[in-house]
Amino acid sequence: MRKIGYIRVSSTSQNPSRQFQQLNEIGMDIIFEEKVSGAAKDREQLQKMLEDLQEGDIIYVTDLTRITRSTQNLFELIDLIRRKKASLKSLKDTWLDLSENNPYSQFLITVMAGVNQLERDLIRMRQREGIELAKKEGKFKGRLKKYHKNHAGMKYAVKLYK
After folding, report:
1. Which family does it belong to (predicted)?
2. In order of start, what are the domains of the chain with their CATH numbers?
3. What share of the chain is helix, strand, coil (3-state, %, to 5)?
4. Are 134 and 140 in contact (CB under 8 A)?
5. What confidence tens digit (pLDDT) does each residue in 41-82 have?
């Protein structure tokens, strides 16, 4: 079992020393540091940490906003960590403890997952309603076809086929 710290600041001008201090107080085996926006998809150190994650490891963050900005990404991250039989702990958000013996965290994660699913379903429902309304008004034509019968690539493919 390793204690793994993850530190992120949004830019190179910000100072991560407070996060280092908090994590070092509880003793980390390794700390991954990132200087990039939380909204950025490509976070090299986060990916490296997740790839190196082993069964029994515990990832520590000072605050959940350091590891992810969106609820959906948090659930994807929690799912990945659980599949690797590891844990995630936030020093600030003490309600989050992915260990099996914390029923409160399990309950909150289940509720948050339900809210997240509801949010996705409502977005789809509004999208369908918008499409139906646009169709009634004659504004919705669907996606433009990538290839049509007069497309040069399509003509060439038909020629090759014959």
Report:
1. Belongs to the site-specific recombinase resolvase family.
2. 3-100 (3.40.50.1390), 102-143 (no CATH)
3. 50, 15, 40
4. yes
5. 678 899 999 999 999 999 999 988 788 877 778 888 888 898
Nearest residue to 19 (alpha-carbon basis) of 109, 116, 117, 92: 92
Structure-derived torsion over alpha carbons of residues 144, 147, 150, 156, reported in degrees to the nearest 10:
170
Q: What angle do CA 24, 30, 32 make, to 5 degrees?
A: 95
- How many Cβ atoms sit within 10 Å of the Cβ of residue 8? 25
The single residue of 10, 13, 87, 90 carrying the catalytic annotation is 10
The model scores a pTM over 0.85: no
Amino acid present at 6: Y
